[in-house]
Amino acid sequence: MQQRNLGQQGLTVSAIGYGAMGTAIGYGPTDDAGSISAIRRAHELGVTHFDTAEMYGWGVGEKLLGTALAPIRDQVTIATKFGFTPSFAPNSRPEHIRTVVDASLQNLRVDSIDLLYQHVHDPAVPVEEVVGVMKQYVEAGKVKYLGLSNTNAESIRKAHAVHPISVLQSEYSIFARESESLLPVIEELGIGMVAYSPLARGFLSGAVQPRSAYAADDFRQRIGWWEPENYDENVEIVGQLTQFASRKGASLSQLAIAWLLAQRDYIVPIPGSRNAGRVAENIAAVDITLTVADLAAIAAIAPAGGVGSRA
Ligand SMILES: NC(=O)c1ccc[n+]([C@@H]2O[C@H](COP(=O)([O-])OP(=O)(O)OC[C@H]3O[C@@H](n4cnc5c(N)ncnc54)[C@H](OP(=O)(O)O)[C@@H]3O)[C@@H](O)[C@H]2O)c1
């Protein structure tokens, strides 16, 4: 597996990582044994970077990832995140950060967290104060690298001035292009990017269902791409991308991941799957090279991403 540098502080990870959100929340019923097999298969195939968060089941996802990675702890880097209340409002108050990070260390069964993110910008707490607390964990040897997620250029600059930020984690895919506006600032500051939901939450996976097949309480029903007025147009885009992928000998999910790898050499996509076979399919994207002409063809099919908003 190719390696990529995230930031300039020494964090090097596999070009494709693994996102563990779905092992705990978001995509319907989970099967822990299947998820653990999927995680271990990812590692066997060269993935060394694994992403979770307190919020993925309030510790449940972290515990599962910690169990799966315990035998290979020294061969991988683990990222986790703090910053939400149980009702999904931002909370980056210092005492809350400390409570959550101390619990994450226990849940993951590690002495140190390789990469700690603030999960979401909290307008109630200056980011300098947030990073000040994160920095104390680095100084104590309990965290190695710092990251931010779901934030803006101004906060990135302020945070980086307190302690070097290694990674911005942002939603980025052929469908979700908003974070391209943050590339100039992270490039200037030497910060890497972890691209989350690289398969557009499954829309770019080949597994997209007729709209009526999604349960009324499936969170994707609330995403703009799934809204009735946008859905058919997005399915049409996906159909064209699938045809293009097959001409390259790739699946749609592989095309989506290869597209991200081709954008910048400091971008690491973290597709999520609870199935070992689909994990293997996604990881094989590392061997797909997209030419300038390929990228232009994809841009012609989806010039501005998916139709509708990503949230
Ligand atoms: N920072 C943040 O705020 C934030 C937000 C969202 C996500 N994330 C991170 O990013 C990671 C990935 O994002 P995500 O899980 O939301 O979305 P994603 O990776 O874009 O898509 C995941 C969905 O696609 C399906 N899938 C994956 N590979 C497939 C394949 N080859 N064929 C068919 N279906 C496939 C998965 O189902 P199966 O599991 O059934 O295969 C799941 O339903 C998360 O796990 C999490 O670590 C971070």
What does this molecule look like?
The chain has 311 residues and is of the alpha/beta class. The chain has a domain at 3-203 and 264-273: Alpha-Beta Barrel (TIM Barrel), CATH 3.20.20. Helix content is 38%, strand content 14%. The protein is built from ten helices and ten strands. The strands form two sheets. The chain has an eight-stranded parallel beta sheet. Strands 1-2 form a two-stranded antiparallel sheet. Helix 1 packs parallel to helix 9 (276-283), helix 2 (60-69) packs parallel to helix 3 (94-108) and helix 4 (127-139) runs parallel beside helix 5 (153-162). The two termini are 32 Å apart. The mean pLDDT is 96. NADP nicotinamide-adenine-dinucleotide phosphate binds at residues 19-22, 27, 51, 119, 149-150, 169, 196-202, 205-207, 253, 270-275, 278, 281-282.
Summarize the helices and strands and which ones pair or pack.
Blueprint (H helix, E strand, L loop, with lengths): L2 E4 L4 E4 L3 E2 L12 H13 L4 E3 L8 H10 L7 E6 L11 H15 L4 E6 L8 H13 L3 E7 L3 H10 L4 E5 L11 H7 L2 E5 L31 H20 L4 H12 L3 E3 L6 H8 L8 H10 L10
Parallel strand pairs: 3-4, 4-5, 5-6, 6-7, 7-8, 8-9, 9-10
Antiparallel strand pairs: 1-2
Helix pairs in contact: 1-2, 1-9, 2-3, 4-5
Number of helices: 10
Taken in chain order, the helices and strands follow as: EEEHEHEHEHEHEHEHHEHH
The helix/strand class is: alpha/beta
List each distinct ligand once: NADP nicotinamide-adenine-dinucleotide phosphate
CATH superfamily of the domain at 3-203 and 264-273: NADP-dependent oxidoreductase domain
- Architecture per CATH nomenclature, i.e. the level-2 architecture of the domain at 3-203 and 264-273: Alpha-Beta Barrel
Approximate shape? globular
Organism: Rudaeicoccus suwonensis
GO molecular function, one term: oxidoreductase activity
InterPro entries: Aldo-Keto_reductase, NAD(P)_OxRdtase_dom_sf, NADP_OxRdtase_dom
Keywords: Oxidoreductase
